[in-house]
Specification:
globular, 94 residues, 62% helix, single chain, mainly alpha
C-alpha cells in the first residue's frame, strides 16, 4: 500500500467515525458518501500520481472544512509517512 493509499484508508476510518449529520448532502460531490467513494477508488485503482494527489487534496480539504481532520495534525502525520528521516529536501525550480 502506498503512502497516499494509507492516507485514504485513514480518511475512510475518520469519516466512518464521524457522528454528526452531513450538512453538505445536497452537494453530491462534497458529501461524505462521495468522499468515501473517492478514497475507495484511490485505493482500488491504479491512478496516475497527479490525479491521486488531486483527489487526496480535495478529500483533505473537505474533511478539514468539516473539522474531521486538523490540518496541523495531518501535516505532522503525513510528514512521517513521506519523509521518515525528518530531513528537509529542497528542490530547485526549473
Amino acid at each position: 500500500m502506498t503512502h497516499e493509499e494509507m492516507l485514504f484508508a485513514r480518511y475512510i476510518q475518520k469519516i466512518n467515525n464521524y457522528k454528526h449529520d452531513d450538512v453538505l448532502t445536497d452537494h453530491s460531490r462534497l458529501s461524505l458518501i462521495n468522499l468515501i467513494w473517492l478514497c475507495e477508488k484511490a485505493i482500488e485503482e491504479d491512478l496516475p500520481v497527479d490525479k491521486m494527489n488531486r483527489w487526496l487534496g480535495f478529500v483533505q480539504g473537505c474533511l478539514a472544512m468539516r473539522g474531521i481532520i486538523d490540518v496541523d495534525e495531518e501535516r505532522d502525520y503525513s510528514r512521517q509517512l513521506f519523509n521518515p528521516t525528518g530531513t528537509l529536501e529542497t528542490y530547485e525550480r526549473t
